[in-house]
Specification:
Layout (H helix, E strand, L loop, with lengths): L8 H4 L24 H11 L3 H15 L4 H15 L3 H14 L4 H14 L2 H20 L8 H31 L4 H14 L6 H14 L3 H14 L4 H14 L3 H17 L8 H25 L3 H15 L3 H17 L3 H12 L5 H11 L11
Length: about 375
């Protein structure tokens, strides 16, 4: 019986906004006295009619006042103006300058992220997106500023985090989709691994983890795949996706069979207790549960057939079949495996039925199942009617 690799995530699985300024500010608070020369110079910049005029006036502002924290104010405007003019490299230059002065400036990092996204520069999109995740993470851990008490600081912090929540949801979704769209599986795995660490609380964290592990699997880098999955499980022992991936892979390759069986059974226990996430419909949830249970049972069956327990394997494959029927690849693989269990049990007519079901679907198992069917002896000749 030959095996075929497949991307497991295929079976297991915004509104644009500007950087909010509500509540307290993330990053340094640069105070410019009203009516001061600096304030008047910035007012002149804002009143300028064209981008070229604004840039010229900002250059003048930097020459006169661009020392220390005041440079942040100018850098923010440079990024916005150059990005608006689609001069993205200049926008990145000033975003980097601004973040060098203040690594916690949410506005500059967000503007850099949007500029990178507009240009289609995925590497910079990730750089600024991950910087945003770090900024928000540091802010969450931040204590009250000097002179402010905890009781008044916490509501301000809460309001600020609520103000950036929509923007961060957009960043998170955008980075996940950008990484998932990479055709180079090695680059995809690298980007998703960076994403899964920075956005561990994101709703996309679990599919990102699954994609990372599955990318390593498709590359044939089983050691790295297993190491990554075990790293995830060390932090989250009840991660169903990683348990299923390890069970499916090990049972398919015929390695570490006791652990594969244990992982599959543990996944079944966790699936039975799982709660439907917010936003998922009853139909979506039922489909997800069905596929996960089917993967667990077909893994258990494959472990059994590897151990020459054909009766146990058949029972598991029979349980998996209706659960996987909506997933052509998984269903065809399960029926192909079931065919071999039935052949080993000398139940040839039933084996032919299972193999015919596998051959009926447009998957890599079509030719494998058909070849096996062609190798089987024909049934007994039918008697002619008298």
């Amino acid at each position: 019986m030959r095996r075929v690799l497949f991307p497991l995530l295929a079976a297991l699985f915004a509104i644009l906004c500007t950087p909010p300024r509500a509540g307290a500010q993330m990053g340094k608070m640069v105070r410019i006295p009203a009516g001061s020369p600096e304030d008047q110079a910035l007012a002149t910049v804002n009143a300028a009619a064209t981008a070229a005029e604004k840039i010229a006036l900002l250059d003048k502002f930097m020459a006169e006042f661009g020392k220390g924290d005041l440079a942040i104010v100018a850098d923010e405007q440079y990024v916005t103006i150059y990005a608006g003019e689609k001069q993205y490299d200049k926008a990145f230059e000033y975003a980097d300058k601004g973040l060098a002065v203040d690594a916690d400036d949410y506005g500059i990092a967000y503007s850099g992220f949007r500029a990178a996204q507009e240009k289609g520069d995925v590497e910079r999109e990730f750089r600024y997106g991950l910087a945003l995740a770090d900024i928000v993470s540091r802010y969450k851990q931040k204590g009250p500023p000097a002179g402010e008490v905890e009781s008044t600081w916490e509501p301000v912090k809460k309001e600020t985090l609520a103000g950036v929540a929509e923007g961060m949801n957009y960043v998170s979704a955008s980075l996940f989709n950008a990484a998932r769209g990479m055709q180079d599986v090695k680059l995809q795995a690298t980007l998703l691994e960076r994403y899964a660490i920075a956005f561990a609380d994101s709703p996309y964290a679990e599919p990102a983890q699954t994609l990372v592990a599955d990318s390593y699997r498709r590359q044939g880098n089983y050691a790295k795949m297993t190491g990554f999955a075990q790293q995830v499980l060390a932090k989250d022992p009840n991660n169903i996706a990683m348990l299923l991936l390890l069970a499916d892979d090990a049972s398919d390759r015929g390695v570490n069979l006791p652990q594969a069986d244990e992982n599959a059974h543990k996944a079944l226990e966790l699936i039975a207790k799982a709660q439907k996430p917010a936003g998922a419909t009853d139909e979506q949830w039922a489909q997800r549960i069905s596929v996960q249970q089917g993967i667990a049972w077909t893994s258990i069956g494959q472990v059994a057939i590897q151990k020459k327990n054909d009766a146990g394997a058949l029972s598991a494959f029979q349980k998996a079949a209706p659960m996987l029927k909506g997933e052509p690849f998984l269903y065809a693989r399960n029926q192909y495996r079931m065919g071999f269990a039935l052949l080993n049990l000398k139940r040839v007519p039933e084996a032919k039925t299972a193999l015919t079901q596998a051959a009926s679907l447009d998957t890599p198992y079509r030719s494998l199942a058909q070849d096996k069917l062609n190798s089987l002896p024909a049934g007994p000749a039918r008697k002619k009617a008298p």
